[in-house]
Design goal:
By secondary structure, the protein is α+β, with helices and mostly antiparallel strands. The chain is built from three helices and eight strands; from the N terminus they run E-E-H-E-E-E-E-E-E-H-H. It binds zinc ion (2 copies).
């Protein structure tokens, strides 16, 4: 997607470049795993792009929010994301990197990326922070008791007499699936 994510290195001013922009339509959705969907609320990127010689440092914050179902109890949840982005772009043929002038001391680099043309895309580090922030099987809480494998009740809020079969039984997943389908 051109525009927001593409930056021509020679057009970065001495003082750096300030980005403050909504994310392109559909971008977030295309980087979410199957467990998530965008909440439809505002998604934005604020970033500072600074050039030091041939190196380009991007620091900023990506904000978005996602919706998902707890993978144990199928409860609907949403989560606000405020993700720090910090990435360094270096020329592919750089014999060595001059890092001493860059302020990398505070919390370290999130990632380093090689570039081959004068136009760099800052999308890869953005995609990485999104993927990294979202676990594959999200839970409403680490203590979530899940659904009863027998009667399908949500054991976080209800009790049942079905007995001993724990949430790790092979039937638990089946009950969850059944419950999920019943909702549709
Ligand atoms: Zn849950
Ligand atoms: Zn039960």
């Amino acid at each position: 997607m051109p525009g927001l994510f593409d930056i021509h290195i020679d057009e970065i001013p001495q003082a750096g470049l300030e980005l403050d922009s909504p994310l392109p339509e559909g971008w977030l959705a295309s980087h979410l795993g199957p467990a998530y969907r965008p909440s439809g609320k505002a998604e934005s990127l604020q970033a500072h792009v600074r050039r030091e010689g041939d190196n380009v440092l991007v620091t900023g914050t990506l904000k978005a929010s996602v919706e998902f179902e707890c993978s144990r109890c199928a409860d609907s949840l949403s989560r606000e994301l405020e993700l720090a982005v910090k990435a360094l772009f270096i020329p592919e043929d750089a014999a060595h990197i001059h890092l001493e002038n860059l302020d990398l001391s505070s919390d370290g680099l999130e990632g380093m990326y090689e570039y081959t043309s004068r136009t760099i895309s800052i999308e890869p580090p953005l995609a990485e922070v999104v993927v990294f922030a979202l676990e594959d099987y999200p839970l409403c809480s680490q203590e979530c008791a899940g659904l009863c494998p027998t009667c399908g009740r949500n054991l976080n809020t209800e009790k049942c007499d079905c007995g001993a079969t724990g949430k790790d039984s092979p039937f638990a997943a089946l009950a969850q699936l059944k419950n999920k389908l019943a909702r549709k």
